[in-house]
Specification:
Strand order of the largest sheet: 4-3-2-1-5
Number of domains: 2
Structural class: alpha+beta
CATH topology of the largest domain: SH3 type barrels
Shape: elongated
Number of helices: 3
Oligomer: single chain
């Protein structure tokens, strides 16, 4: 008996209540799989980005969604915008929304990374 025929018989009441319980269990299982594959990771990523943007400070080096790398020079929490300075001469200042920031590097982290690479070069 095909699935379509089974569904027709079930809706007519010819099959017992166990068939409808099985269908409900299948739908619950599908929803659970979708939750753990799609919804949960997306929420986790949103929380991480919100934490990243809440810790944003003046002087941080940032990378934008467009791939530009610059330094934060001003933060306006009311309108959730930041002013980022780009370029070698640091003469290009662009206001942008915080959500356009993808990656943040603190100045302390940059100093630690540069000191680690210097130590690695000395040991070779």
């Amino acid at each position: 008996m095909s699935f379509v025929n089974m569904m027709a018989l079930e809706s007519a009441g010819a099959v017992g209540g166990t068939g409808s319980v099985m269908i409900i269990l299948v739908y619950v299982a599908i929803f659970a799989v979708l939750y753990f594959i799609m919804i949960r990771p997306q929420r986790k990523e949103q929380k991480q980005k919100a934490q990243l943007l809440s810790q944003l400070a003046v002087g941080d080096s940032v990378r934008t969604t467009g791939g530009f790398i610059g330094t934060v020079i001003d933060i306006d929490d009311e309108s959730s915008t930041v002013i980022v300075e780009f370029g070698n001469n640091k003469n290009c200042r662009i206001p942008m929304v915080k959500e356009a920031i993808v990656e943040v590097e603190k100045p302390e982290d940059a100093l630690k990374d540069s000191s680690n690479t210097k130590e690695d070069k000395k040991s070779k």
